[in-house]
Amino acid sequence: MSTRDLVVLGTASAVPTRARNHNGYLLRWDGHGILFDPGEGTQRQMLHAGVSANDITCLCLTHFHGDHCLGVPGVVQRIARDGVAHRVRAVFPASGAEYWRRLRHAAVFADTEVIDEEPIAGGEVRIDLPGAPFTLTARRLSHGVESYGYRIEEPDGVTMLPERLAAHGVTGPLVGTLQREGAVTAPSGRTVTLEECAVPRPGQKAAFVMDTRVCDAIAPLAAGADLLVIESTFLDADARLADEYGHLTAAQAGAIAAAAGVRRLVLTHFSERYPAAEQPRFAEEAAAAFDGDIVVARDLDRVPMPPRRRLAPVPAVGAGPV
C-alpha cells in the first residue's frame, strides 16, 4: 500500500528545547523518501519515529545554517552503516559546497558510494530524480544566506469510472488500452474515448518553505499545494524581528497559504523564545487569514497528505446522472 505522509523529526529553530529537536522532515511518497534539513540529532529522532536510512532516497538542504544541516554527518554515516544499496540524491545550494564537503566527511567511517551530489544555483532549478513519480523543483528564497524552497508535484492523471466502463462494455485488457491510447473499439464496434469513462485526477502537490522572509518565490512553490510545510518562527508581535532575520510569522504563513489555495498547512521552525503555553497562538494567528486545516507541528508527528481531490463526473450524453 502506498504511503504519503510527513514524518516530523524536529521543529525547533536555531536553538533546540526540551520538547523540540532541531529541524528534520521526512516526506514519504509511494516508496520514495525526501529528507529535508536534517538538523542535529536527526539520526536519533529517526529511531524514535520508526524510520530508517533505507527510507531515504533524496536528501534536500535549504541552506547551511546549523539547525538545518548539522545532522548530515550522522545521516550519511547511517546510510553507510546500514548498507543502503539504492542511490540517494543529495541536493544543496552550490554556494555552500564547502560546508557540504565538511559535513559529508566530518568523521572517520566506512564510507558509502550511493550518494549522488547535486549542488543547485539560480532562481529556479528542476532536480531530476530517476524513477520518482513526481517532479522536484527548487526556488531561491530571501534569507541571510542563500536558501531554497522545494516543491514536489505529481502529474495530473485520470480516475476510471467502473460504471461507465461497464456501460460501454470496456473490460479486461481493453481498459488498459483505453488508458494508454485514449480511445478503444468496444465489442459493439463503437469507439469509446477516455473522456467518456474517466474524470481528471489532479496530481498531488507538496511544498517545503524554510528560512525566508516574504518574497516572490514563495507563491509558485506553494500554489495549489495539498501540503505546505512552512516556517513560522515568530508570532506577529515580533514581525519586525522576523523581517530583520529573514523569517516568517505565523500570520504571514497563514496569509501565504490562503493566497496559494493550500489544503493543509503545517507550521514549524519555532523560536525558543515562546514557551509551550504560547503554542496555540501560532494556529490562531495563521487562522486569521487561512480557514483550511492547520497543524502546529510537534516532534515525531506523522502528518498525512490530504485525500486526493476528486472531480465529479460529467453526466453521460443522453443519460441521467451516472
UniProtKB/TrEMBL annotation:
Domain Metallo-beta-lactamase span(s) in chain numbering: 19-123, 199-270
UniProt keyword Nuclease, yes or no: yes
Names of required cofactors: Zn(2+)
Listed InterPro entries: Metallo-B-lactamas, RibonucZ/Hydroxyglut_hydro, RNase_Z/BN
Catalysed reactions, as listed in the record: Endonucleolytic cleavage of RNA, removing extra 3' nucleotides from tRNA precursor, generating 3' termini of tRNAs. A 3'-hydroxy group is left at the tRNA terminus and a 5'-phosphoryl group is left at the trailer molecule
Record's cofactor remark: Binds 2 Zn(2+) ions.
Keyword Nuclease: yes
EC number: 3.1.26.11
Pfam families recorded: Lactamase_B, Lactamase_B_2
Chain residues that bind Zn(2+) 1: 63, 65, 143, 211
Catalytic site: 67 (proton acceptor)
Keywords: Endonuclease, Hydrolase, Metal-binding, Nuclease, tRNA processing, Zinc
Subunit architecture: Homodimer.
Family: Belongs to the RNase Z family.
PANTHER family the record matches: ZINC PHOSPHODIESTERASE ELAC PROTEIN 1
Protein role: Zinc phosphodiesterase, which displays some tRNA 3'-processing endonuclease activity. Probably involved in tRNA maturation, by removing a 3'-trailer from precursor tRNA.
Name of the molecule in the record: Ribonuclease Z
Organism name: Actinoallomurus liliacearum
